[in-house]
Specification:
Blueprint (H helix, E strand, L loop, with lengths): L7 H6 L20 H9 L3 H5 L2 H15 L3 E3 L6 H5 L4 E4 L2 E4 L20 H13 L5 E7 L1 H10 L7 H9 L1 H25 L3 E5 L8 H22 L5 E4 L7 H7 L4 E3 L6 H8 L5 E5 L1 H6 L1 H15 L4 E5 L9 H11 L2
Parallel strand pairs: 1-4, 4-5, 5-6, 6-7, 7-8, 8-9
Antiparallel strand pairs: 2-3
Length: 342
């Protein structure tokens, strides 16, 4: 029998059921923490913060130090890849701002250095790995190609995704070239994170849920499968977590066809469906409503108990269904840590 991984997160991602599930939280490094806000004040722009290894490593470790999560997640941003490919990137109060990629000119405006330009991120991984306790996993991550493409083409967040969907429908060959470029960049980016010390990686496909059936297969599942296959050839034991937020009925197809090792669940996935149709295929991660964490008290107690009862019988990592909200009281996360320690 193979020796079990010592880190609790890796055991769960390998399918082990545990009485106390390992846990971490998406956006666990963030503005809800006073020590994060103090650190952020020392940085320049948000991009400079992400590309300052000492500051980014400290942001990675802060929540683990305070709350005792079973994993830290690299402090970075999914759009650093777009910047490395040559697209100007800035952050304002309204979120990320990019010079929109013009479908008419295709990829000619992209002439960046590629993932070699992200060497500071790999140094962040090395520094954070050295700071974290030996039994705490470090998770690397990237945005999935479809989601990164939406920001690159729209120039930021979007309500209707008209530009990016329009390109994909009108010129599928040209849009495929963008997705293929992002697949290559994402494989290289995650491979460097793993080589620097990441124990597992997560693909965030935050806008997977805006696509209809056939387009979901083409622009979400197929690129994810290509990334997973190529990473597995180099790092066969490193688990890949896929998070196709908003996938709804298509979660099951994603679980069956994407090649990921574990599945992140958003808040809308019913626990019975998750247990019977998803967790029966592969370990799952999720899916507490972030607002329940903001509210705390009885709402938090009941939601945590329901998720543990529903998913605790198989491979399971406790997490949120999306990221920690800035309004979250730190004491509520401390309460969550106590609940999960029982």
């Amino acid at each position: 029998m193979a020796k079990k991984a010592a880190k609790r997160l890796l055991r769960a991602l390998a399918g082990d059921a545990m009485a106390r599930p390992p846990w971490w939280l998406m956006r666990q490094a963030g503005r809800y923490l006073p020590e994060y806000r103090a650190l952020r004040a020392r940085a320049g722009s948000f991009v400079e913060f992400c590309l300052s290894p000492a500051l980014a490593a400290e942001a990675t470790v802060q929540p683990v130090r305070r709350f005792g999560m079973d994993a830290g997640i690299l402090f970075a941003d999914i759009l650093l890849v777009a910047r490395a490919l040559g697209q100007p990137l800035d952050y304002t109060e309204d979120g990320p701002q990019l010079a929109p990629l013009d479908p008419a000119s295709g990829l000619r405006s992209l002439n960046g250095a590629g993932v070699a330009a992200l060497a500071p991120v790999y140094e962040t991984v090395r520094l954070a790995r050295a700071e974290l306790p030996a039994d705490v996993a470090l998770i690397g991550f990237a945005g999935a190609p479809w989601t990164v493409a939406t920001y690159m083409v729209e120039g930021g967040a979007s309500r209707d995704f008209r530009r990016v969907k329009g390109w994909a429908y009108r010129d599928p060959a040209g849009f495929t070239a963008l997705i293929d470029l992002l697949v290559d960049a994402t494989v290289g980016y995650l491979a460097e994170q793993i080589a620097a010390g990441a124990d597992a990686v997560q693909l965030f496909d935050s806008w997977a849920g805006v696509l209809p059936d056939c387009e979901f297969t083409r622009w979400v599942i197929k690129p994810t499968r290509e990334i997973a296959q190529r990473l597995k050839r180099r790092f066969p034991t490193v688990p890949i977590i896929g998070f196709p937020r908003g996938a709804g009925f298509l979660y099951e197809r994603y679980a069956a066809e994407s090649g990921v090792d574990a599945l992140g669940l958003d808040t809308t996935v019913p626990l019975a469906v998750a247990r019977e149709r998803l967790q029966s295929r592969l370990p799952v991660q999720g899916n507490l409503d972030p607002v329940a964490l903001v509210v705390g008290g009885r709402a938090l107690d009941e939601a945590v108990a329901a998720i543990r009862d529903g998913l605790g019988g198989g491979g399971f990592v406790f997490n949120l269904g999306h990221g920690v909200l800035p309004q979250t009281p730190p004491e509520n996360i401390a309460a969550l840590a106590r609940l999960l320690a029982r």
